[in-house]
Predict the structure.
Amino acid sequence: MTKHQEAKESSAKTVRSNLGALGKKTSLHARFSLTWLTFVPRPACNSMPELDLGADFVPKSNTKTENVAIAREVSVEEPENLQVRCELGTSSGRYFKMKKFAYTSVAALMLSTSGAYACGQVSVGAMGWASGEALAALTGFVLEQGYGCEVTIVPTDTVPAVTSLAENGQPDIVPEVWVNSATVYAGLEAEGKVITASNTFSNGGEEGWWISTAAVEANPELATIEGVLANAELVGGRFNNCPVGWGCRIVNDALKVVFDLEGNGIEVFDHGSGANLAASIAAADEAGEPWFGYYWGPTAILGKYDLTKVDLGPIDGPQHAINQNADADPATWGPSDFPAATVVNAVTADLAEREPDVANFMRNMEMPNNIVSSMLAWAEENGASADEAAAWVLTNHSDMILSWMSEDAATRVSALLQ
């Protein structure tokens, strides 16, 4: 069983254990947030097991997260398919279905504590990709449950988010801003409109040449480009290159000449798409063969497959810039490893003044790349939502997240994780 398979089975056991804790006939005393539930049509649920929440529960309108305290005896034949019926005291009812892969242990933690502590309204930008959405969900949960903020999640993307920061001073918080894609960010920071609270990822946005960790463990010299060039047969005699049109392809096409890959017995295979590049890693892993090529992170692929970054030598910024230039004279190409992309958690200056405790939390919020990749791999494999991915991190890395918070906030959130 591979390390990933073991992790997958461990996660599955955790989910089954948490769901099983509901029992087939038990007195259930908990609080659930309907963030983790999906609306389904009333007629589809008539024959399902029900948990009547009573007429005292009235959802707030136009909000995606609702909280309800329940203390009912419930008979559940299939806990993983628990159906929750909410009677609103009217002729109609609403039904909610718990998603199969919901992290019930954390779903049950979503207590309605907002307003109990000194924090007002806070908006959080959710970038339109998996890690950005999950980090926004995680931030929102901590601010609501630890700091008592009233959080609004704002779907966005790099350019719209930074443009809104410049024009409107909103959102208050934007996790995972890729600075190289936000050309006006440096100006906003210089003007004092935004503050770089922290690096989103400990190692920044990584890219480079990677090799199967199993191959490096068997032959440690493969951790450097010199060792790879001297042992082409140990890396399968192939370098897996980026597709045409990707920025990395320009750099790799320069470095393959600089390092004379083909002269050292390493074929350069140009993949036609990102999907094919990822599939080559999966195929090599399944066959138990070494894989050598370009990839980037944090990504689900790096969370799913055990790869080690090859040391290409020192990072030379000016040289890397030349290698990135498609029009550069080949005579000017030279060796340089890939510098990490700057990826930051940004907060507005207004938020830092208005909610200093929240700003301090964001200053501490820096996640190791391997944890982000593992989260993305779990979410992809389980078809999980951003909220469920955030729950995975809370469940599996609670000590890290609690360490980012103030003592009072950590105490509140820690109590929920018991």
The CA atoms of residues 37 and 54 lie 18 Å apart. Confidence is low (pLDDT under 50) at residues 7-116.
